[in-house]
Amino acid sequence: MFHLCMEEAKRDGDEDMTVVIYTTTDDFDVYDPEAKDNITKTHQQIQHTEKTWNESRQDCRQREADLVIINSTEEQKFIAKQLDWRRAWIGLTDRDTEGVWKWVDNTPLTTAYWDEGQPNNEHNQEDCAEIMGFPETKPWNDRNCSDSKLWVCEKCFCCE
Predict the structure, then answer these.
(1) Among 2-11, 43-52, 69-78, whose mean pLDDT is lowest?
(2) Which of 43, 59, 84, 90 would you call most buried, defined as having the most Cβ atoms within 10 angstroms of its Cβ?
């Protein structure tokens, strides 16, 4: 059985924005709410307050979610578009080993969308990744994890 939580993005003033993205369990992503075969539903929420990377991740975990893992160009562009020129934390860090970027589920980064010259580990203090709301570019940047940013939580629901 397949259930929808929400069919489109919702913006209500300063309230949280909820985005539901549909992805297949194959090697490609689909953003078609009508497609019901072999679908995994990903519920993403962009928070409208600012917190550090650790605080952001803690907030996501309290929601039984985690910081977003970006799996495709389409998903990356979709999230960047929802941010509308703002910046937000994503679930990517190289805290364990400098230059070795891993997602919050401990999988290695295989496809990256770094902005030109990034990641640059400016002042040896940039170990967390943000996405910038510029959908037509490569919008990732490394930042100091103690900076305060918006963040994107992601919760996956498997559908039969």
Answers:
(1) 2-11
(2) 90
The answer, yes or no, to whether the previous bond of 119 is cis (omega within 30 of 0) is: yes
Write the CA distances from 103 to 2, 4, 13, 14, 51, integer angstroms.
Answer: 28, 26, 31, 28, 19
144 three-class SS: coil
Q: Estimate to the nearest angstrom the gap between the alpha carbon of 106 and the chain centroid.
A: 15
d(CA 42, CA 157): 6
This prediction's pTM: 0.74
Burial (CB < 10 A; 0-12, 13-18, 19+), residue 113, is middle
Of 64 and 105, the structure prediction assigns the larger pLDDT to 105
